[in-house]
UniProtKB/TrEMBL annotation, chain A:
GO CC, any one term: plasma membrane
Single GO MF annotation: NADH dehydrogenase (ubiquinone) activity
Protein name: Na(+) H(+) antiporter subunit D
Source species: Pseudomyxococcus hansupus
Similarity comment: Belongs to the CPA3 antiporters (TC 2.A.63) subunit D family.
From TrEMBL, chain B:
Family matches, as Pfam families: Oxidored_q2
Record-given protein name: Na(+) H(+) antiporter subunit C
Highest taxon, organism lineage: Bacteria
Transmembrane feature ranges: 75-95
PANTHER family: ANTIPORTER SUBUNIT MNHC2-RELATED
Cellular localization per UniProt: Cell membrane
UniProt xrefs under InterPro entries: CPA3_antiporter_subunitC, NUOK/Mnh_C1-like
Keywords: Cell membrane, Membrane, Transmembrane, Transmembrane helix
Listed GO CC annotations: plasma membrane
Membrane disposition: Multi-pass membrane protein
Length: 501, 119
């Protein structure tokens, strides 16, 4: 397959299937199968893209035959390809989980087309080669997420989506201002072209100011300190499948965009941006985990953990060494799987206990042994206990911080890891270990089996985590190669701009 | 002209942000409309205003010659308007539905649920 097909297929498949999904009869099963097939295809294309990029280097394609920097460029380096593959896998997981948990009436509606649009938007954001299209894809993804959040139209969901939507729109305004100002200063928005133009620009201060606009916009999308408050206010309201999809993909686009622009475009004044990113990262870690410790609603607790883990990623980006970027990529992968596994399990426990409130749970360890195991592995992995993937990812971040002699970040990372373990143990103690609350009529619940389809996706995520943990070495090698590409944009620029400088 | 547009952008941003700070969901939506318009005007102004120079390559030449209106920002703004319009329509539907459910358009009413769970 040519690189143009390979690069555009994930987007075309998702958006095409979303459109087709609206045309086919409004019944549960055809839409479910269409979504499953599409996600499988996206996963396969993502894998092929990753293999191609690993073998032949950065792939770029000019849409419509207009040469960069004038046309629309799609480009994939190892990081993009890896993230497209992960988006496909997560889409597949969430669709199969939705098929098992959602009522048929919901499946028959616009749910699957929206999921497809969201994944398509995310893939577009990962693959695009210029900043304006990044804005467009982020809006596509956000548009789908707004509707997914409010789809059931329960009161708390409406409230959550108004908050989430107005803050996202604010972020979009800032991002659009940043894009416009950057175009005014640099005269181009193609990422590769920018990385050539900006070092020679005669307006470095203006560019630093513009980079701060981007920092604010993407930090808001990523849920970084102090712009994270929309996240715990909204993520606990939709069904578990939707929360899983959001937590796996939405904030990651923000982190990806930050990583992209601060390694490729704004590389001139790294002292300032690094310091800022380190401070933001450290504070994000701490506030996130402290917020989590105070919560007794399982999904709200997990939402705060999204924030604290984002902090690790941003701090790793702030260190800006090859080791740190390797850690960032490994951590990103681990964290998408671990967090999704936890959200999926929270949905399964809610199915058994009919609540997300930890006070009203208990005794699941005895009644649902398999579920308990499926919670235990990702919880330990998230906290960074060996031999699961989280250990290596977290170790890599801490090592990178130590190598950069940034003791504050290293110390914060260790302490936050311990607090994460503590809050995971809180869920374990409350939901799985303690005796069930007395006032609750204890109906004998049948243990969930794989036949229900609820545990399958959880199992898949847990397996990934064990595989990533045990086979950490190839993953680290891949992450290291991707980090190398991020730090040395020569190949990226060459692939996009062709022979021209 | 630049001066006039810059002032307009400033006024629109100020008005939009003021609307966001009032405790009303409808004004929140209005504020976002104003902010969106302010951003579009900002894009338009920053990227240089040119009057009467269409970006057309003259016959017999290969490239555009110096004074021409850059079509790219206008393409950005058009795209941004479409996106903004769609999302605002969605927001208005949400606001309407939320007002039906809660019987109020006060943003402070949206926070009750958070307080309940904190207790």
């Amino acid at each position: 397959m040519t690189s143009a097909t390979l690069l555009s297929l994930p987007i075309i498949l998702c958006l095409g299937a979303a459109a087709a999904g609206q045309l086919i009869p409004s019944r549960a099963w055809p839409r479910r199968w269409l979504a499953l097939m599409t996600m499988m295809a996206v996963t396969v294309v993502g894998a092929m893209l990753l293999v191609t990029v690993r073998r032949d280097g950065v792939q770029a394609a000019q849409m419509g035959g207009w040469a960069a920097p004038f046309g629309i460029t799609l480009v994939a380096d190892l990081l993009s390809a890896l993230l497209v593959l992960v988006s496909g896998v997560m889409g597949l997981t969430v669709v199969s989980y939705s098929a098992a948990t959602l009522p048929a009436s919901r499946e028959a509606g616009a749910y699957y087309p929206l999921v497809l649009v969201l994944v398509g938007g995310v893939c577009g954001a990962f693959l695009t080669g210029d900043l304006f299209n990044l804005f467009v894809w982020i809006e596509v993804m956000l548009g789908a997420s707004f509707v997914l959040l409010a789809l059931e139209a329960r009161q708390e969901q409406l409230e959550a989506s108004i908050k989430y939507m107005s803050l996202s729109l604010m972020g979009s305004v800032v991002l659009l201002c940043a894009v416009g100002l950057l175009y005014g200063v640099a005269g181009t928005l193609n990422l590769a072209d920018l990385s050539v133009v900006i070092p020679d620009s005669d307006q470095p201060r203006l560019l630093t100011a513009v980079s701060m606009f981007f920092l604010v916009a993407f930090a808001l999308k990523a849920g970084a300190f102090p712009l994270f408050f929309w996240l715990p206010a909204s993520y606990h309201t939709p069904p578990a499948a939707v929360t899983t999809l959001f937590s796996a993909l939405l904030t990651k686009v923000g982190v990806y965009a930050l990583a992209r622009i601060f390694t490729l475009v704004f590389t001139r004044d790294t002292q300032l941006t690094s310091t800022l990113l380190l401070v933001i990262g450290g504070l994000t870690m701490v506030t996130g985990v402290l917020g989590a410790v105070a919560q007794y609603d399982m999904r709200r607790l997990l939402s705060f953990h999204i924030i604290s883990q984002i902090g690790y990623l941003i701090a790793a980006l702030g260190l800006l060494t090859r080791g740190a970027l390797t850690a960032l990529i490994a951590f990103l992968l681990h964290y998408i799987f671990a967090k999704s596994a936890l959200f999926l399990v929270s949905g399964a426990t809610a199915r058994v206990t009919r609540t997300y409130d930890l006070h009203q749970m208990g005794n699941l360890y005895r009644t649902q042994p398999l579920l308990a195991a499926l919670f235990f592995v990702p919880a330990l992995s998230l906290a960074g206990v060996p031999p699961f993937s989280g250990f290596f990812a977290k170790l890599a971040v801490i090592q990178a911080a130590l190598r950069a002699e940034n003791w504050a970040i290293a110390g914060t990372a260790v302490v936050v890891g311990l607090l994460t373990l503590f809050s995971m143990m809180k869920i374990w103690r409350e939901a799985f270990w303690k005796a069930p609350p007395e006032n609750q009529p204890q109906e004998p619940s049948r243990p969930l089996s794989l036949g229900d389809g609820v545990l399958g996706p959880c199992m898949a995520m847990t397996t990934f985590m064990v595989v990533l943990g045990v086979g950490a070495e190839p993953l680290m090698e891949l992450a290291d190669a991707a980090a190398g590409q991020l730090l040395d944009p020569g190949e990226y620029v060459q692939a996009v701009m062709g022979g021209r400088p | 002209m630049e001066m006039f547009l810059s002032i307009t952008v400033g006024v629109l941003f100020a008005a939009g942000l003021y609307c966001l700070m009032l405790h009303s969901v409808v004004r929140l939506a209005l504020g976002l409309v104003l902010l969106g318009s302010a951003t579009n005007l900002l894009l338009f102004t920053v990227n240089g205003l040119q009057r009467g120079f269409a970006p057309l390559v003259p016959e017999g030449e290969q490239a555009l010659s110096a004074p021409f209106a850059d079509p790219v920002p206008q393409a950005f703004i058009l795209t941004a308007i479409v996106i903004n319009f769609g999302l605002l329509a969605l927001l208005l539907v949400l606001v309407h539905r939320a007002a039906q459910e809660t019987g109020t358009d006060d943003t402070r009413a949206l926070r009750t649920e958070l307080k309940d769970s904190e207790q």
